Structure formats: C-alpha cells, structure tokens
Amino acid sequence: MTSVTGTSGEDRSDYTRTESVHIRRRSQRLLAGLMHPVRGHLALAAVVLVVSTALRVIGPSLIAYGIDNALPAVIEHADWLPTVGVFLVYALSAIGGAALIGWYVLVAARLTQAVMLDLRTRIFRHTQRLSLEFHESYTSGRIISRQTSDLDSIRELLDGGLNELVSGVLYGGFTLIALLLIDVQSGLILVVMGLPLALLMRWFYRRSQLVYRESRVVSAKVIVKFVETMTGIRAVKAFRTEDRDDREFGELSEDYRAVNMRSMRLFGTFEPGLMAVSAVTLAAVLLWGGMRVSTGALEVGVLLAAVLYVRNFFSPLQEVAMFLNQYQSAAAALEKVSGVLEEEPSVPDPQRPASLPAASGHVRFEDVEFGYGNGRTILPHLSLDIPAGQTIALVGTTGAGKSTLAKLVSRFYDPTRGRITLDGIDLRELSPADLRRAIVMVTQEAYLFSGTVADNIALGKPDATLEQIQAAARAVGADAFIQALPDGYDTDVNKRGGRVSAGQRQLISFARAFLADPAVLILDEATASLDIPSERLVQEALQTLLAERTAIIIAHRLSTVAIADRVLVMEHGEVIEDDTPDALIAGTGKFAQLHAAWRESLV
Ligand SMILES: Nc1ncnc2c1ncn2[C@@H]1O[C@H](COP(=O)(O)OP(=O)(O)OP(=O)(O)O)[C@@H](O)[C@H]1O
Ligand SMILES: [Mg+2]
Assign residue 591 a region: left if phi > 0, alpha if psi is -120 to 50, beta otherwise? Predict the structure, then answer.
C-alpha cells in the first residue's frame, strides 16, 4: 500500500473481506518473490521428497508379497529366488529412501537459509529506506518484532514444520493409495473413518488457532510490560512504582499461564481422540480382513500389509496437527512482514534526479503548506527567501513550527503544497546524495553509534583523515575532552570510560556536521545541553565556520541571535517578524519583548 497511515494499524485482526484478500495477495506476492530466485532448488527438493516418500511406502506391500508368494515358494519348491528378490528390493528401497531423505534435509536447509537471508536483508534495507513519517507512526518495538519474532516463526516453519507438514500429508496420501491398490475394502474403511478424523482435526485446528492467537496477545503484553518497566527504570525508581509493577506483571503472567494451560488441555483431548479413531480403524480393518482371510478371500500377507498401512497413515497426523499451528503463525508473520515491505517511502527519491555538485546554499520556500500525515495544517502558508551565506536565527514559542520548518529544509518531509528549492532546484528533484551533502541538520538528540569517537565524527565524511577529524573537533572545542578520554580519538563510545555526557555528545555531533562541510547547516536546539562556557565556545567557532555558509539556527537562548544576520520570529506556523537583530530589538514587536525579558533575566 502507498499510505503510511493505511497499514500502520497492521497488528489488528478485524479485517474486512477486501482487506484480507488484499493482505493475502500481498503475502503471496512476497512469497513468490522470495521463491523465484530459488525455484531450481525448490523443484529439486519437491522431486526428492516425492521419490523418497514413495520409496518409504513400498515396505508393507513387499512384506505382503514376501509372506504370500516368496515364503510358500521356499516351503513348497525350496525356491529362494523370490525371497532374495524381496529382501534386496526391501533393503534397496529402505537405503535409497534414507539417503534421499538425508539429501532432502540438506536441500531444504539450503533453501530455507537462502530465503531467510533474502528476507532479513530486505526488511532491513526497506525499513531503513522508509521516510521518517513511517518511523514515527510505526513504533520501534513493532519494527523489532518484524525483524526478530516474525522472522523466527517463518524460519521455524521453513526449517522443520513445513517438512513435517508436506511430507506427512504426502506420506498419508501415498499410503492411502497403496492401501487402496493392495486391498480396496480396507482402503474404503480408512476413507470412511476419514470423516470422524477430519472432524477431529478441524475441531482441534479451530480451537488451537483461537487459543494460539490469545496466547500471542497475552505474551506480547507480558513482554511489553517487562520492557517498559526496565527501560523506564529511572522513572520506576523515582516514583516508587515497584509494587504496582509487581502486581501488574504478576497478573499478566498468570493470564499467560492460564492460556498455556488451555492449550495443553486441548492437546489432552485431541491426542486420545486421534488414538481412538486410529484404534477403531485398525480394529475394523483387522476384523473385516480376518473374516475374509478365514473364508480364503484374502491372503494373510495382504492383511498384515493393510494393518501396517493403516498404522502408518495415522502416525504422522499428530505432528501434522501441531505444525498446522506453526503454519498459522508463520502465515501471520508473513502478512505483517509483507506489509512493511510494501510500504512506500512518503519522501520518494526523484525519478530523474537533478545534480548539484557544488551548492551555494540559496534556500527558498514558495507558498509552502504543510501538515504531518493527514493531520492538521502546521504551516499554513510560508514564503521565505534565504540568500546563500546568510545566518538566520529562528525563534518563537514552543510548538510554533520551528523544528517543522527545519525538517522540511532537510527534506525529512515534503510540503503538502508549494515547493522548497535549493539554488532554484526543487528538493523533490534533487539527487539524494547531493541533497545530503548540501544540507545537514544537527539536533538536540545527538546520537552516537557504536564505534570510536573518531568513527562517529567521520560519519559526516567517511573518507576523512585523522587530521581532518581532529581539526573539526578543535574547531568546535571538543578536542580537549576527547584527548582526555582513555584512548583519545580511538575510545569506544560504548565501553566503560568512553561514556560521554549529553553536552559532550552534542560537541561530537557538531564536529561531525562541520566535517561534513555542508552549504546549508541547520542547528535545532543543538546547544541545549551545553553549559554557558561550552556554548560560548561553540558560538565563537560558529562565527568563523558559518562565514560562507547558509545557516538556520533555532535556539531558545537568545545569545545565539548575536551572530545572526537576520531573525525570524515564528508563531502558529507563520513568520510574524523578519528583520536584522538590531532592527527588531529597537522595535516594539514580539522579539523586542522577548529580548528585553531575556536581558532582565541576565542581571
Ligand atoms: N511528528 C509529528 N507528527 C505530528 N505532529 C507533529 C509532529 N512533530 C510536531 N508536530 C506538531 O507540529 C507543531 C509544531 O511542532 P514543532 O516541533 O515544529 O515546534 P517547535 O517550534 O520546534 O517547538 P519547540 O520550541 O518546542 O521545539 C506542534 O503543534 C506539534 O504538535
Ligand atoms: Mg523544536
């Protein structure tokens, strides 16, 4: 589907008919796409499986032949040839069948692993490529379960369950055919007993599906409660909610136990039921066969073969019933995974990208209207011209739309109406690589990836030398604290001693941005975690670093405004004041009031 909101409620189960058809088609498309590259292997596995199953089914018929024909030949004419023949065919078919099964296991494993590898990388690539809008509505917990538990249930099915299921069904079918061929009347008894068997299987499948679904819901609740408590452990401790959490977790665990008991009870009914049907069938075949043997209408060997076939027919059924569940959960997982994979980025890459190797940094908003998703309009009508090289300070009340404006310039979202251009080129048409090189945003959440401090700074320019990395760090005043870390620039940020403070993280992400050397730099509250001296240091650095760059600085501390060429005051998504800092301070507008209040707070 194209819309983000359309599938963001993916984890529900109350689909309408057309929706379910659509979802089923979607899964089938994904399955077909996954199977296409491995179709050769798939065909091979199918042939190997059919041949090996057929070989397994020969056994009882050979025994019948041995008892009814080969044995009398030995007794009556001392002719050992048929017996030796039976022995050889039996041994060969058993060995051949076993070897083929071994081969099949390998072929199937190779198939499974190829499909899983493909699926795993597809999910990662696709989820990473999707726009921010998707990630905001699709929680990270759900993305994680796509990549972990959903993939696991698909793997479990492919690894073992599907084998059992397909070979069990195939074996049952072949056995029935063999039985019908060797003795039609016993075969008909089995067919008739198929009715109660089918009813029992259907009952079990339906009930277990319900219980299974409930168990998934309850187990998800248990996990969510656990994860939430542990990730919010600071709030838990601060507000002393341990007792309440204990109680709630205890209740959820109790529910989980109860649901599992119900599922066990289901097996407690199903297994004896299956045994009963099997026993009754066997008894009927034996009774009717025995009567015919006594009148000479049936040979003893055939009766023995019929009994063996009936027993073999029932033996895989319990496993088949168990794996129907696994099949069910894998199908559900596939549905969810296919949902993520068919999500289109809401900020698509251009069809024919315009290249801009050296941007000058001239940014224009032309009649831009914007709202998140299908929600209310945040920016009703914005027109703005930022000449190349200008430093803008963007101020305004909380929720005015400052970060929204910054995210639009970075093309994390596209405007609903109008356009935003860089050097006259619509951002939607600009090649993504050039866009990322030209425009860099630094936000308050300075994220550090695992690796060294140097690696983290080099993110902005992967081919940077250590000298360049150090120069960038020096420029923003991060050099001193990095040198003081246990291994300097080679300190692992995840190791003990490599842990840095929030402010230090911001300095690192500043260094990262300066190393990237973009034409347009956006700072959204990027200095919020810095103390006054560090912020002053960054500001001094900014003055030189922003010299020939376009910059949009969003800051609550008005000291930043001092280095700006121009101040924009935003309110309710509109720019209400736009002038040089001095002119605005001298005036009587909103900014003059803010500035006066700020001055007062300083003394
Ligand atoms: N991802 C989002 N989805 C939906 N609405 C959003 C989203 N982000 C922000 N908003 C809404 O857009 C409006 C503007 O938010 P924005 O973050 O641009 O404000 P801001 O000026 O940066 O505020 P602050 O000074 O607090 O950072 C707010 O009313 C907010 O509710
Ligand atoms: Mg903001």
Answer: alpha
Architecture of the domain defined by 15-183+319-345: Up-down Bundle (1.20)
Q: Which atom of ligand 1 lies nearest, measured to the CA of 406?
A: 18
pTM of the model: 0.76
CA dihedral 112, 113, 118, 121 (to 10 degrees): 130
Q: What is the DSSP string of 105-137?
A: HHHHHHHHHHHHHHHHHHHHHHHHHS-HHHHHH
In the chain, domain spans = 15-183+319-345, 363-445+517-602
| pLDDT confidence band for 445 (50 / 70 / 90) | confident
Average pLDDT of the chain to the nearest whole number: 86
pLDDT at 2: 34
Fold topology of 363-445+517-602: Rossmann fold (3.40.50)
The alpha carbon of 371 and the centre of ligand 1 are apart by a number of angstroms equal to: 10
> How far does residue 293's CA lie from ligand 1's centre (Å)?
87
The side-by-side arrangement of strands in the sheet containing 377-386 is 377-386, 363-371, 417-422, 425-426
Q: What is the pLDDT of residues 125-148, one digit of tens each?
A: 998 888 888 888 777 767 777 888
402 Cβ inside 6 Å of ligand 1? yes
Nearest 10 degrees: Cα torsion 382, 386, 390, 393? 0
Nearest CA to ligand 1 atom 7: 372
Of the pLDDT bands very low, low, confident and very high (cuts 50, 70, 90), residue 496 is low
- Cα→Cα distances 120→113, 116, 148, 282, 519, Å: 10, 6, 9, 47, 37
Question: Residue 321 has what pLDDT?
Answer: 79
Residues in the chain, total: 603
